[in-house]
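User: Let's play a game. I give you a shape written as tokens, and you guess the letters that built it. Ready? Here's round one.
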């Protein structure tokens, strides 16, 4: 889910949890793997009947490789970023798939949201403070970064006591 997962109703407070997109559900994964396994098994049987029995093992390795690739992909999907804003603090917590987290604190009065859109359609979302830049939300696509940048700018404006800008 790339949209802010939870927004607080309190004025001047913003909270969003950013997740990488995973388009295939667990059921879909099982169906795809079952289909690939069935096709591989049927092809392996055909080759075995023609006398090329070693091919069966390679089909099994293909299914195993696809299984491992999907599991690694789902594991990386456990990463997320938590963006919390109060009138006194903007805090970004990056949580790795392993559960290890790093937090970065910013003064909301001095931080600036930068969105660098490139001609190829990609974008970088950064926070700038005293000449330093901090990139975050790397797993969002360019449109999601643009929407999130505007939402965060509005929340920062509200936290600073100014009226939010219209999108």
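Assistant: Ready! My guess for every position:
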């Amino acid at each position: 889910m790339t949209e802010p997962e939870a927004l607080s109703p309190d004025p001047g407070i913003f909270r969003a949890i950013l997740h990488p997109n995973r388009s295939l559900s667990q059921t879909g994964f099982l169906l795809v793997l079952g289909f690939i396994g069935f096709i591989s098994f049927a092809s392996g049987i055909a080759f075995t009947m023609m006398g090329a029995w070693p091919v069966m093992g390679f089909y099994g390795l293909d299914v195993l490789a696809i299984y491992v690739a999907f599991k690694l992909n789902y594991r990386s999907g456990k990463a997320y970023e938590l963006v919390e804003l109060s009138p006194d603090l903007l805090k970004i917590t990056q949580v790795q798939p392993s559960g290890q987290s790093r937090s970065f604190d910013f003064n909301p009065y001095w931080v600036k949201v930068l969105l660098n859109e490139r001609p190829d359609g990609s974008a970088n979302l950064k926070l700038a403070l005293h000449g330093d830049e901090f990139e975050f939300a790397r797993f969002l696509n360019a449109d999601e970064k643009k929407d999130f940048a505007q939402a965060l700018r509005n929340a920062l404006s509200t936290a600073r006591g100014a009226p939010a800008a219209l999108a």
